[in-house]
Amino acid sequence: MTGVPSIDPRSGRTVEIVAEETTTEQVGAICSAALAAAGPLEDLGRDGRAALLDDLATALEAQRDRIVEVADRETALGTVRLNGELSRTCYQLRLFSEVLRDGGYLEVTIDRPGDTPMGPRPDLRRMLVPIGPVAVFGAGNFPLAFSVPGGDTASAIAAGSPVVLKAHHSHPATSQLCYEILAEASRKAGAPEGTFGIVHGLRAGADLVAHPAIRAVGFTGSVTGGRALLAIIEQRPEPIPFYGELSSLNPVIVTPAAVADRAERIGAEFAASFTLGAGQFCTKPGLLFVPAGADGDRLVTAIQEAIADLEPMVMLNNGIATSYQQGTSALAAAAAGASAHSQLTPGDTRDQTVSDQPARATPLLFTASAAALPPEATEECFGPVTVVARWTDEAELFAALDGLPPSLTATVHRGSGETDLPAELTHRLRSRTGRLVYDGYPTGVAVAWAQHHGGPWPATNTQHTSVGATAIRRFLRPVTWQNAPADLLPPELRDEYDSVPRRIDGVLHTRL
Amino acid sequence: MTGVPSIDPRSGRTVEIVAEETTTEQVGAICSAALAAAGPLEDLGRDGRAALLDDLATALEAQRDRIVEVADRETALGTVRLNGELSRTCYQLRLFSEVLRDGGYLEVTIDRPGDTPMGPRPDLRRMLVPIGPVAVFGAGNFPLAFSVPGGDTASAIAAGSPVVLKAHHSHPATSQLCYEILAEASRKAGAPEGTFGIVHGLRAGADLVAHPAIRAVGFTGSVTGGRALLAIIEQRPEPIPFYGELSSLNPVIVTPAAVADRAERIGAEFAASFTLGAGQFCTKPGLLFVPAGADGDRLVTAIQEAIADLEPMVMLNNGIATSYQQGTSALAAAAAGASAHSQLTPGDTRDQTVSDQPARATPLLFTASAAALPPEATEECFGPVTVVARWTDEAELFAALDGLPPSLTATVHRGSGETDLPAELTHRLRSRTGRLVYDGYPTGVAVAWAQHHGGPWPATNTQHTSVGATAIRRFLRPVTWQNAPADLLPPELRDEYDSVPRRIDGVLHTRL
Asked: Which residue in the set A427, A439, A510 is minimally distant from B510, CB to CB?
């Protein structure tokens, strides 16, 4: 048996052994319990699950101080940020209770029998039903918003799908604590045993994804991790959907009009965005396009000044700190070997390595020519580093944008009332992103009905979102009932039911 | 260069060489043209593409006789069936023009800026946009409804995604002809060059799926074929969505009340269903659960009588005929080696091999005990064969159902007013299918808003449908605009636009 340690990244010391790594047999039992819970969880109905989600939020809030204390000890993210994360998760749980009460997510569609040019049509009634037990892999960088509590968990439970959580090795105590709070609240709310399960350990994560009871996987992490889990799924006799939120560069483009208008302000705000949470955000802006010339120089100077006095930042764990050191060393090497094809130069004068303390990273800025961006500048580097790409004309800018990998976000800063270049940028960026941000920064991802947190590979591997109301769609699948007697239909598909939006004979009706 | 032959399955002779196999370079040029067409096709707008779809239907209908003649020569499906297929495709094209005019498929969602418990929320506006060029693989068994013309093509063009078609080797002349008709009609309608492309040959299909311009793949075919394409996709630097409709057993369960009520009628109708199109339907019922006893015997006798006089049926091609011979031989071997674990017995007295003429198959019926179904009885066998599983009590029936692979459909025949057993069957079958059919047969798949033609693996590999209005969702992806100035928004996301359904601040509004 191998113990799972909870490590304090500020000291590098193991504080406690949280649990034993979950064995294959234990994973099997947990998955079977989840499968057994699927029917009763669905039977709670939309109102029952809406109440459950509200109870889960209340239970997390009741233990807020304890949760934040443990999470801060394990992640060093600070109590302000962690309180915000917990509030966000509770807000998201309550948003999904609204989504359930609204019922539009069911996509209820009814075609009554009738004659068509193709002959008589049967009675067809379609809606979405829960997909079955979901494996949710916690993310290292969001212990409370994309982990045991978070958008994947909230949307799966809302859908009516039990959740088996894979605790992240970087915050196992936080994961275990939150799991226990959710499981107990769930029990008290009358949800079935098995609504929540948790596993610890790398092997247990692989076992989980391979288990036949698991019907979908939610994952926020690296491309490498995502590819490894996808490979396990491809080996299953029955492959299942995998929802991976993987890697994102999040380019920000500043137009000449914008930089003429507010260079210093953009520089200061951008510095705050890329260093937020020690740059450990999937939406961290990793590449900033700034026009060549004096206005652009002012913007770059503003960034340099903003980060000059920042202390080395504690990273989530030594693995991430090491990756940051490797990534920034590669950027520095590209800068040192600058040639016609690789004109990367350090943008500040400080040592470009992480601190020699464990798990700490110095914020860094590199500059390059947009005409000759080295490959290192277009790969995500987790941590407080960004590359400024200077561009001299629009053709150069457009060519550089066309060479970028897709991202979760793409941002345009424009001048007051400016439309031509922003329109062209919108056109070019839309195919490479899931969210277009104007005159702002990508790091805030509001929980809302209209949010989309996704994008073409490598941002994600599907057309779905992991934030916002439509995240629920990942854990549902359509079923059509043909000529079913009314008493065998789910309530929402019966003629007399009218409190959800329904499309009947091709016409959408809102709830009454 | 290798020529692509058009073979007459009735004679086994090559009638003509349709084209040369498409080279890798040619595939590249075709995909590039599709990519170049993506913007202009989207710019046609919803009304423009709705008109285009109507024009495509009209153009196909104008060449109906020629299309049906070529298709019948290549597939031997008969002119009645092929005329029906063409009508179905035209109906589907026109349904998607309705879908476009309605606009609900865009999932327009607007959250206006405001204060939330999480602080100020930006203006967020979400809708679906075209995914980009789509590769559509024609199916051998539906030359006009799931091939060059068909649901994948109609839904992709509706979405605004150009289509590159992979012609099926079993009907290349039909594919080429239909492609030319669609391409010409598309040109006349003002759609961009590159809206349609076509490739021939196995290698060209692999090149197509690997090409970076292709953003999604629609496929109707075997699990083996689907797995091979998925493996190519996994090797891409940027994996893309693959929509495979793969394999389906389509179980039909008859309750004791139903068999007491109408054994002979169900037997005759079932025989017509499993032999329709020589059993070459993804929705062919491959397994029929009939209660043991005299009523059930009458049903089985009715099937035997219905197929006794059927002539050997011409299959689509020699490959399918050979697979049929292998599959039915395996069923016969399982019957011959009947033991406690494998009690399969031939249900009729005729020779259980395909005719020795090329591409012909004799309709066959096997019977087995539901308590000891051999593995061969739960695998799809393409062609006019089915297995009748006799069951003695509900526990035996339920255990057998729980052991079945998921299917596109599952069907229940119940007695007049019967609810208890049908309710239990509905509960058990729903997790294993995408469409529940009552008192009917699965072979008809109506084109409608509420249709779902999909299901858990191996029926399909996603939660999507390839028939009906929501098939369009496969070729779209969401984008959210954050704090965008109105003039950079698509029309449907602007404040004043109100002719599509929109969810605003969480409340769904229908079009005015």
From this structure: A510
